Each structure stands twice: as structure tokens, then as C-alpha cells.
Amino acid sequence: MTAVLRHCFTALLIIFISLQTAAAGKNIPAEINGLNGTLTLPENSTPKGVILFIDGSGPVDRDGNSPGSQTGNLRMLGDALSDAGYITLRTDKAGTGAGAATVNPADITFAGYLRDYQAWFGFLQKHYPDTPVYLLGHSEGALFATLMAQQHKPAGIILVSPAGYTIDIILKKQMRAQPFPPEALAYINDVIDRLKAEKTTENVPPSLNILFAPELQRYFMEWMQYDPAEELAKVTVPGLIIQGGHDCQIPPENGERLIRTAPDNQYAEIATMNHVLKATPADCAAAIGSYNNPALALHPELVPAITRFLSAR
Questions:
Q1: Where does the signal peptide begin and end (predicted)?
Q2: Is the model's pLDDT at 12 over the cut of 90?
Q3: Contact 165, 223 (CB under 8 A)
Q4: Mean pLDDT confidence for 77-103
Q5: Which of 53, 266, 290, 307 could potentially form a cystine with 278 if both were Cys, beta carbons 3.0 to 4.6 Å apart?
Q6: In CATH terms, is domain 27-165+226-312 a member of 3.40.50.1820?
Q7: What is the pTM of this model?
């Protein structure tokens, strides 16, 4: 047996054993294509469905944490939906979590992330063929869920804090809210416009490298080609859009555009929920602490909104 075949056999064996022994523990590991995740299963009940979580932008791991933000929101949501009777699968994106050291950032692409999530979806369909599989995308993950639903026809999609405009429009608005000098803001807008036209900018000032590093520019160019509202209008499976009224990153006007363009979906606005799914004040500066407070619970209206949608299917 070659090394490649041994690796594939071992990975399949791990998955098989994990699924067969799931009753012994609520959280079990999952692995596919070198990526890792956590299946959370309901205790003492037949699953009502399976939900694949799709993370937001940046180096967000399966728990919803990233280097600058420790929220634990996806872990909390996975546990809560498991308690409601659903299997959830939360995964580490390439370059995050358990696989953080295995991927060169320059090799990460929008299309690559999409293929990875498609592989996870196929994994769930294979191992739970008689159980409906849903997609739950948070922030950028909502766009991945939308694109996947066009082709793979899940039982439904749940878009939490989704963008309703192309990412170049979102970025420009977010940058205007920052205290940049006029000349710096003009430069940023020019870089964004060039990316929209599929042109990169070289020799970006070091202070802007966190936003416009070469690998990020390539990623943004892919991302900017998709209008979330237009893509959602192509989806034929049931959908739920959830927007937070106190979301300073992706405010409610985004969800409102989505539902105008794709009115067959359901829409729920949670008045005091912010982008990381916590209840916070409307003032953005006052709410920033929630981004590094894993002890702060999810907004109490979030899980009921999701389970109402799922129960109606």
C-alpha cells in the first residue's frame, strides 16, 4: 500500500470509528482533506437535521475565534443547536485552528475555501444520507452558503450577519468609519477600485499591509466578483436571513437588500445583536469588548429564530 493510500485509508478509518462511537461522547472529531472539525451530536434523541457551519472572513477557527477576537460564538451556537436536536459540524478553515501551520497564506483562495466547504457538505451527505443537511453561514460564510446552495441543494440555508452588497462597497463604507486622513482614505479607495477591476497594487504602505498584503489582494479580487443579493436570487431552497440591529460591521441595510432582491426567503432582524452574535449597546466603541469576551452568551433571540425556521421545514 502506498503512503498516499495508507493516509487515505487511515483518514477514512478515523471518520468511520468516530461516527460509529458517537454515542459515547457529544463532541467527536472529523477530518477530511487534511482539514479538521468537530461534530456535535444531540444526546438521547434522533437528529432532526445536520447543520454545516461556514465561518466568517479572516483566520476564524471552528469555535469562532481568531487572533484578534476570542468570542467562542460558533462553539456556543453549535452546542445550542445540538441541544435543540441537531447535529452540527464546525470546521477549521485552511490555515486556521489545527491546520494553521500547514498552509501558506499565499495559497489560500476564495475558490479553495469554496471547494473545502463543498467537500465537508459531501462528507455529511455520505454519512447522514437520510437526514436533511442545512448550511449556516456567518458573515462571509453566508456567501459561501449561498453559492453552494445553487449547486448542491441543501435542505435550507441560514445566513447570519450576511453582506448584502459586494465586498468593495462594504470595505469602502467600513474604511470611511475609521479615522483615516483624507489622502489615506483616497489611496485606500483607489486600491479597492483597482481590485474590483482585477488589478493589484504593488508597494502598499506597511501600515496598510494588514488589509492589502499581496495574498489578500488576490483573495479580494475573487470575492469582489460576487454580488450576494444577485447570487441569493438564484437559490431555490428555503432560506433565512438573520441580521443584527447593532451590527457595526454589516448593518441591517445589508439584510434588507437581500430580502428585497430575494423575497422568497425569510428575514429576521434581532434589534440588539451585534456582528459576533452577542447582545450589546448600539455604540460601536462600547460594544467592542464583546469581541474578546468568550464568557458573554449568545443573544437570547438567535437560537429561537434559527430553530423556528428549521422546525417549519
A1: 1-23
A2: no
A3: no
A4: 87
A5: 290
A6: yes
A7: 0.90
